[in-house]
Design a protein that fits this description.
- With 160 residues, the protein is an all-alpha fold.
- Helices cover 54% and strands 0% of the residues.
- The chain has seven helices and no strands.
- The longest helix is centred in the middle third of the chain and has 14 residues, at 69-82.
- It is elongated.
Length: 160
């Protein structure tokens, strides 16, 4: 099982079949996708539970893996709509875009939701932003990361 701490819980059994790499993975019940094509299994789940955003995120992830970005965006938009624009699925979707090398697409999902990421996730995101020559976004991530720590606190003194 992947690192769930990098991507907070909240959507229940999220089926992310193929995700892996720098930001960890979220794995759902393998029984949902066994014995056949993962997309067919997810399509069946969507037909059974069309109001479950987890299934739409899973379909979006599969579309990303096959470079069908427009289709993935449609699935992700449906998931966000069904989750009433909750920050948790938006962050998950941003991490999926980032994991698939789509930094420009990921930033609008990730930047407003930095508070949901743990320290390791923020550090990795800052590194990716620096590597991709996005210094202003990297500075924002690092500033947010630094605000969580108990770093240097200036001591006020009176002049003698």
């Amino acid at each position: 099982m992947g690192k769930a701490s990098l991507i907070p819980g909240g959507l229940g059994a999220l089926v992310l079949v193929l995700l892996g790499g720098a930001f960890g993975a979220i794995e759902g019940p393998s029984s949902m996708v066994r014995g056949g094509d993962p997309e067919d299994s997810l399509q069946n789940l969507v037909q059974q539970e069309p109001e479950n955003p987890s299934h739409w995120v899973g379909l979006g992830q599969l579309a990303l893996k096959t470079n069908q970005d427009d289709l993935a965006k449609g699935y992700f938009d449906e998931a966000i709509k069904l989750s009433k624009s909750s920050a948790d699925p938006i962050l998950r979707i941003g991490l999926l875009w980032l994991e698939n090398g789509k930094l420009e697409t990921a930033l609008p999902y990730l930047m407003p939701n930095l508070s949901l990421m743990d320290a390791a996730g923020l550090t990795r995101l800052a590194k990716v932003l620096e590597d991709k020559k996005h210094p202003s976004a990297a500075i924002l991530v690092l500033r947010h990361h630094a605000s969580r720590g108990t770093g240097f606190v200036p001591e006020l003194r009176r002049a003698a």
